[in-house]
Amino acid sequence: MRARSLLLASALVLTLAACAPAESQASPTPTPVPTESQAPEETAPLELVWTDQIFAKDFTVDDGTVVMSVEYVFPDIENAGEVPAWQKIQDYYAAEGMAYLSDAADLAGYAAGDYEVAQAMGEDFLPYGESMSYRIALQNESMVSIVRSYYSNSVTGAAHPSNFQFSETFDLTTGEKLTLWDCFTDSDAGRTRVLDLLEQKGADAGYARASLESELNDAYFYFSDEGLVIYYQPDTLAPYAAGLLEFTLPYADLQDLLAVSPIPS
Question: Model pTM?
């Protein structure tokens, strides 16, 4: 009996050993592969690209004769839609161009009248004409100064054509057009400084401070590489034959009062 019990016990041990789960073999842990960190791509700053917006038209009378021709070339910005400030500047000049065309249409009526008189009297008729061009006088990251030249032979009976200059200075971050006194931290101090410098510049040419001050227009200025340029239209300070008068005020004489940064780096 004892021997049988031992046999049964041995068989039970073998059976349990056979049923025991085999020891699992752990799968190897993958070794992490280092990856190169990708630096964020740098976005190149937008470049302001100037181009032209042209407003041109020939005005004719019933017989097909051209009595007036105009071509006004104003600044345009090719990628204006990418920056609100640029769009504002583009819109400003688009409105200016349309206003010039509207004025030209009114003037063309006078040209047609002069043509009819010339025809009736058997005289030659010189068609009216107007044109506008521009140049970038100074541009940096924060501002731009634009100078426009206007020509007209549209004054009936005038001894010579008319030539005038206009200009605009814009803040490129806002699109706002600046007046002369906007460019100074203290407008009163800026005005005094400008007149003092104009007096010094004009003395050699015989222009008195009173005249320089009375004819000063805070829209007639622009910035150049050399300094702040103040100009006077023909037939203001001097006879028309003297033409446009410009005075360049060096930055060294203004820098402590300037609210803008026009000085080229």
Answer: 0.80
